Amino acid sequence: MDTIYLDNNATTMTAPEVLQEMLPYFSELYGNPSSMHSFGGQVAEKIREARAKVAKLIGADPGEILFTSCGTESDSTAVMAALNAYPEKKHIVTTKVEHPAIKSLVEHLGTKGYRTTFVPVDSKGDLDLEFLYGSLDDDTAIVSIMWANNETGTIFPIEEIAAQVKKRGIVFHTDAVQAVGKIPIDMANSSVDMLSISGHKLHGPKGVGALYIRKGTKFSPLLVGGHQEKGRRAGTENTASIIGLGKAAELAAKNMAKENLQVAALRDRLEKGLLERIPNARINGNPDSRLPNTTNISFEYVEGEAILLMMNELGICASSGSACTSGSLEPSHVLRAMGVPFTCAHGSIRFSLSIYNTQEEIDFVVEKLPPVIQRLRDMSPFWADRPQ
Ligand code: PLP
């Protein structure tokens, strides 16, 4: 049975071009980029190229790109750098719908003497901006808000928010892990101070990320030791993966506009097909401001986990929330924050597509999923007892 992979917000396939670019750095080109000899120097040159490619994708200067091990490390580095830069300030602002990479970190810091504010969202997943701006004060060290939500795909007005936050002289960080490579981003015309990237979300490899740090931003490293990354992150570079991320960024910059049209058309076909065939189904998130590859659909009165298991039997991979929160039977914190009714939140499935999906795959899902939902509903006492 072929796999139909609709879980690209969890991770993406490494693009074949990316893998090709990486392979020599696992074998013959194994030099250490910090070495004095040219055997290592040629690797350092490739890392320079990769930095320039990542910078180009987001309209940054190569010197503003720091390579890390993942999106989570980029997020932690940014938040801790701001807190270290302004030790007298003890207030952190974020949202109720962040990925655990920020949410759990800020909750943890809340137990260590920091005051924390989690900005609420409305039923479409849009941020309460008045609440956000009203929460800022002289004690606020950093505002960290994701660019696009990993579960619903909702895109926040990050440029507008960053400008308002900067007017008050506060550091602004965005977790753009789901946005980079999917929507245009231009740091040259932006108030964002720091921005997180993860390689494996844009058809690069796992185990590599990047943090954009605007020139002039006060910074201190998370990892202290060697002088790598100009002293901003100690540890021998993950050379092959950094070079792979560079290639992935180059491909995204070149193909994004064309690929987005293709992916959004497939996503819309899937959404329309399912909503036409399945009663009591609804989209979660803001359809007018959404990543082109993501749809989150609630199938009322069924358990998301049961749907996932039955889809798995058919070779269809999707998700009922963030990969980092699955394993828990609680409805997702994102849908709860949006006030999605319990009967819907439990049966929510995130489909996240990529350029490697085909129309045949989408049509297969549209054909096979409705009877699965009906079978599960036939077994559910909640479906039988639903208000008519
Ligand atoms: N932030 C967001 C919005 C994500 O979706 C993810 C991964 O799902 C992360 C951060 C964490 O990235 P990584 O897996 O590279 O640590």
UniProtKB/TrEMBL annotation:
The record's section on PROSITE patterns has: AA_TRANSFER_CLASS_5
For this protein, the record's Pfam families field holds: Aminotran_5 (PF00266)
Query: What's its catalytic activity?
Result: (sulfur carrier)-H + L-cysteine = (sulfur carrier)-SH + L-alanine
User: Where is the signal peptide, in residue numbers?
Assistant: none
Q: Name one GO biological process term.
A: amino acid metabolic process
Q: What is its EC number?
A: 2.8.1.7
Which keywords annotate this record? Iron, Iron-sulfur, Metal-binding, Pyridoxal phosphate, Transferase
Residue ranges of domain Aminotransferase class V in the record: 4-363
Task: List the GO molecular function terms.
Answer: cysteine desulfurase activity; iron-sulfur cluster binding; metal ion binding; pyridoxal phosphate binding
User: Required cofactors, per record?
Assistant: pyridoxal 5'-phosphate
NCBIfam families per record: FeS_nifS, PRK02948.1
According to the record's subunit comment, the protein's assembly and interactions are: Homodimer.
Q: What family name appears in the similarity comment? A: Belongs to the class-V pyridoxal-phosphate-dependent aminotransferase family. NifS/IscS subfamily.
The protein's role, per its UniProt record: Catalyzes the removal of elemental sulfur atoms from cysteine to produce alanine. Seems to participate in the biosynthesis of the nitrogenase metalloclusters by providing the inorganic sulfur required for the Fe-S core formation.
What's the protein here called? Cysteine desulfurase
